[in-house]
C-alpha cells in the first residue's frame, strides 16, 4: 500500500480500495483521522469532526459528497485538498467544503505531484469527481497586482480595525469610548429612575392634592404609582444595558489561514463563522449630501455621515452584523480619497473607489478571507 508523508506527524496510506489519513505520535499509537473505502460512507474521528465542524455521527454518505478539490493558496503558500458537501450539511456548518489535508511550501512545484496523486486516489476510492487547479506558479506570476489598500489601523467610530499580534490576522476591537458612552447612558437612566422614585415617594407621603390628569388618567391618585412603574422600566433598561455590555464581543478576529471569523469577549469565544458559508461582505452608509437642509442655505458644506453598517451576507440569505457606526459627523473621507459623490443604490465596491474608512475596512477583511465580493449600499437622508 503506497504511503505519502504529509507532515512530520501525519501521513496517508492508500490503495484502490481504501484511503486513510493517519496521525502519528511518538508517545502513543497512530490514530486514524479519516478513512475512505469504496462503496461505504466517508468515516472520520471525533477530533477530525470537531476541527472541521463536521456532523457528530462520524460519517458522511457518498450521496452527500460532491467533489474532491485541489488548489494552491497563495496566501497560505500551500496545496489544499478538500471535499465539497451537500447543501444540507453546508448550511448546518456554514461552509461548502472541508479541508482534508494541506502541503505547505514556498514553491508551488514542491509537493504538487504528491497532492495531485492523493487527490486522484481519494476521488477514485469514493467514486466522485476530482478537480485540480494547475499551473499555480504561472497564474500567480501573471495575476494583476491588487490595488493597495489604506494602511491599518482604521478608526471606525466605536471600533478600530488593526492587525492582531498573531501573524496575518486582522481584528476589529471596540474602543474605550464605547464603554464610556454605555456608562453615560446607564448613568442617565439611573438619574431619571431616582427622580421618578423620589417624586413618587414624596407624593405618597404628602397631603397635597394632586391635579386632575384629564381623561387619559381619570384618577390622579394613580400618578405616583405610574411614576414607580416608569422607574421600574428604567431599572430594567439599566440591567439590559449592563447585561448586553457584558455579553457582546469586544473583539472580532479574522483568520486568513483557516478562513474563520471569531467573536471574542476577552479570551472567551462567543461565536465563530466559517468564510466558506459567506456570499459577500455588505457595507451600508446613510449620508446627507452637502447643501441639503430643511430650509434654504441651511445645509452643510460637506456630506454628513449619519449611519454605517458592516454585515456578513450568508449563503442562506441571512445577515450577521459586525459593527454599527451611528455617530453623526462630517463624512469621514480617507486622506487620499477623491471627494466624489456616489449615486444611491447598491453596487460592487472596488479598492480604487473606496472613499471612507468603513469601505476600506470591508476591503481589508474581504481580502483576508479569500477575496470575498464586497457590496456597497448607499442611501441619502
Can you walk me through this structure?
The protein folds into three domains: 3-142, PH-domain like, CATH 2.30.29; 154-176 and 251-380, no CATH class; 177-247. The longest helix is centred in the middle third of the chain and has 29 residues, at 176-204. The termini are far apart. With 381 residues, it is α+β, with helices and mostly antiparallel strands. It has helices spanning 46-52, 87-93, 112-126, 136-142, 176-204, 223-247, 357-368; strands at residues 3-7, 10-14, 18-23, 31-37, 42-44, 59-60, 65-73, 78-85, 97-104, 130-132, 154-156, 159-163, 170-174, 251-255, 260-265, 268-274, 278-288, 304-314, 319-325, 329-330, 345-348, 374-380. Helix 5 packs antiparallel against helix 6. It is built from seven helices and 22 strands.
Give the SSE layout.
Elements: E1 3-7, E2 10-14, E3 18-23, E4 31-37, E5 42-44, H1 46-52, E6 59-60, E7 65-73, E8 78-85, H2 87-93, E9 97-104, H3 112-126, E10 130-132, H4 136-142, E11 154-156, E12 159-163, E13 170-174, H5 176-204, H6 223-247, E14 251-255, E15 260-265, E16 268-274, E17 278-288, E18 304-314, E19 319-325, E20 329-330, E21 345-348, H7 357-368, E22 374-380
Parallel strand pairs: 7-10, 17-22
Antiparallel strand pairs: 1-2, 2-3, 3-4, 4-5, 5-6, 7-8, 8-9, 11-12, 12-13, 13-14, 14-15, 15-16, 17-18, 18-19, 18-20, 21-22
Amino acid at each position: 500500500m503506497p504511503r505519502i508523508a504529509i507532515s512530520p506527524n501525519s501521513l496517508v496510506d492508500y490503495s484502490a480500495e481504501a484511503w486513510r489519513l493517519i496521525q502519528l505520535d511518538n508517545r502513543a499509537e497512530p490514530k486514524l483521522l479519516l478513512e475512505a473505502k469504496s462503496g461505504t460512507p466517508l468515516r472520520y474521528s471525533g477530533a477530525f469532526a470537531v476541527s472541521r465542524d463536521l456532523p457528530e455521527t462520524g460519517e458522511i454518505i457518498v450521496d452527500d459528497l460532491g467533489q474532491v478539490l485541489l488548489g494552491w493558496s497563495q496566501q497560505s503558500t500551500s496545496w489544499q485538498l478538500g471535499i465539497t458537501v451537500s447543501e444540507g450539511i453546508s448550511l448546518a456548518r456554514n461552509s461548502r467544503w472541508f479541508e482534508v489535508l494541506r502541503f505547505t511550501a514556498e514553491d508551488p512545484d514542491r509537493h504538487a505531484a504528491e497532492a495531485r496523486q492523493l487527490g486522484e486516489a481519494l476521488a477514485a476510492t469514493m467514486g466522485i469527481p476530482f478537480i485540480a487547479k494547475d499551473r499555480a506558479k504561472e497564474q500567480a506570476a501573471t495575476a494583476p497586482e491588487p490595488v493597495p489598500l489604506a494602511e491599518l489601523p482604521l478608526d471606525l467610530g466605536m471600533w478600530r480595525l488593526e492587525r492582531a499580534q498573531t501573524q496575518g490576522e486582522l481584528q476589529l476591537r471596540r474602543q474605550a469610548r464605547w464603554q464610556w458612552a454605555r456608562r453615560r447612558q446607564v448613568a442617565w437612566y439611573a438619574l431619571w429612575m431616582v427622580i421618578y422614585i423620589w417624586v413618587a415617594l414624596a407624593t405618597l407621603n404628602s397631603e397635597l392634592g394632586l391635579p386632575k390628569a384629564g381623561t387619559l388618567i381619570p384618577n390622579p391618585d394613580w400618578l405616583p404609582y405610574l411614576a414607580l412603574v416608569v422607574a421600574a422600566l428604567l431599572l430594567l433598561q439599566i440591567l439590559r444595558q449592563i447585561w448586553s455590555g457584558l455579553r457582546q464581543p469586544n473583539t472580532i478576529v479574522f483568520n486568513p489561514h483557516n478562513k474563520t471569523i471569531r467573536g471574542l469577549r476577552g479570551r472567551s469565544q462567543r461565536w465563530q463563522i466559517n468564510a466558506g458559508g459567506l456570499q459577500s461582505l455588505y457595507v451600508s452608509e446613510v449620508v446627507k449630501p452637502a447643501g441639503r437642509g430643511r430650509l434654504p442655505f441651511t445645509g452643510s458644506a460637506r456630506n454628513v455621515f449619519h449611519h454605517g453598517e458592516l454585515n456578513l451576507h450568508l449563503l442562506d440569505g441571512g445577515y450577521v452584523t459586525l459593527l454599527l457606526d451611528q455617530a453623526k459627523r462630517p463624512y469621514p473621507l480617507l486622506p487620499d480619497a477623491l471627494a466624489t459623490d456616489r449615486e444611491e443604490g447598491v453596487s460592487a465596491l472596488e479598492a480604487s473607489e473606496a472613499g471612507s474608512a468603513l469601505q476600506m475596512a470591508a476591503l481589508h477583511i474581504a481580502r483576508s478571507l479569500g477575496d470575498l465580493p464586497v457590496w456597497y449600499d448607499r442611501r441619502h437622508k
